[in-house]
Amino acid sequence: MIVAALAFVVLVAATILSLPRPPALDGRRWLMLWMATLLRGSTERAGGSQEDWAARVVRFVPWHPAARQPERKITHPEDPPPTPALDGEIALAEALSALPDPAARFARMYDTDPNALADRLSDPALAGEAYDPATWFGSGAGWDAVAAGPDGPLTAALREATTARWILVGEPFDPRLPDVDGALLRLLGPRGERFDPHATTPLPPQADSLRADIAARRPPDDVHPVLALLGRLGELAPDHGDHLVLVGVGSGIQLVLEALRASAVIRDQTLAVLAIGGVIRGLDGRDDALGWQACTDWLQANFRHQVLDLEAAHRTPYLSIAWLDRAMDPPGALGVPLDRARFPEPADQGKAARESIEVVDLGVVPVDPELPTDLLALALWGTVTGWIRARRP
């Protein structure tokens, strides 16, 4: 019996070790690699020099390998970082603590720090196979294809990588923001659509049964838009095997989250959720559905593995990218602090029997009128699709 028990233990261990494991990926790093490579290609096509490329990377790609939660590094660099600390995170905090103001800290962290510069201006192949687009989209879709830009072979490879429909919900919360969502729609072509919550859209068959359920969690003005979104998603993905990528722009992410909470079918069909400048954790000084208290209460109650559960044993990535205006205090852009534009860890993290949510921070992008939105849109398309392939090949 002892021998049989030991053999069973060995069999179980061997089975576990043989299961495929998703690669360890950093969303901030992957998007940075895409943007730096796309900028290199566009600079070369315009006849620019290496110095021109480096200047564009520093301007349009805020990055430091140890600068997670950058708002904390800028406003309170003396506070200890989350544990375990990243490589170089404590040294970065000490260096920033010695500087007099946020402007100097931003400049050190993103513009002049040797580690930040080296990462962005190095060969992206050094990041390894897990980050190489060719690993997920085929040998013809490597970093050289990325550098070729939107008119190169990469667009076709991304279209072939998944049949998912991308649905953009909402508009930028301020017209001064770069139109990256519009650029994304142009790239996606027939695969993309912007949902208008005010358009006449057939409601889902279960609308009556869902109405009271949604009203218990959302203000009355949100009930019909959520039902209309569910109806449109049902039209676009009528079969259980149809797939979606849901993109919440500005406050639109709130409708996306409530639609996912309300429909287990839509959750199972959704390959990824992306928030572009999303008002996720609410805003100060408001007592409506976008207020900090309302959003915090909703997230605490519903942004949980057990609430947003899935039929299959995998996790849905919830990715976010935040806008940055270095002059804003606290760090963020146009009234939305950086920490309010990121997904929190699920309220039942570490307590759920099975995890269904994977929170992915894609970092920050500058509110810059010359930001090449077509390149950022392509970088987002590639990073999100690559993440999907890495998790559900």
Keywords summarizing the entry:
single chain; 393 residues; alpha/beta; six-stranded parallel beta sheet; two-stranded antiparallel ribbon; 8 strands
Descriptive overview:
- The protein has helices at residues 2-18, 27-45, 50-60, 70-75, 89-97, 102-112, 114-121, 133-137, 143-147, 154-161, 180-188, 207-215, 220-236, 252-262, 264-269, 292-302, 373-391; strands at 165-169, 192-195, 244-249, 270-276, 316-324, 332-333, 336-337, 357-366.
- It is of the alpha/beta class and 393 residues long.
- The chain has a 6-stranded parallel sheet, sandwiched between helices. Strands 6-7 form a two-stranded antiparallel ribbon.
- Helix 16 links the parallel strand 4 (270-276) and strand 5.
- Helix 2 packs across helix 17 (373-391) and helix 13 packs across helix 14.
- The radius of gyration is 22 Å and the shape is globular.
Blueprint (SSEs and pairs):
Elements: H1 2-18, H2 27-45, H3 50-60, H4 70-75, H5 89-97, H6 102-112, H7 114-121, H8 133-137, H9 143-147, H10 154-161, E1 165-169, H11 180-188, E2 192-195, H12 207-215, H13 220-236, E3 244-249, H14 252-262, H15 264-269, E4 270-276, H16 292-302, E5 316-324, E6 332-333, E7 336-337, E8 357-366, H17 373-391
Parallel strand pairs: 1-2, 1-3, 3-4, 4-5, 5-8
Antiparallel strand pairs: 6-7
Helix pairs in contact: 2-3, 2-17, 11-17, 12-13, 13-14
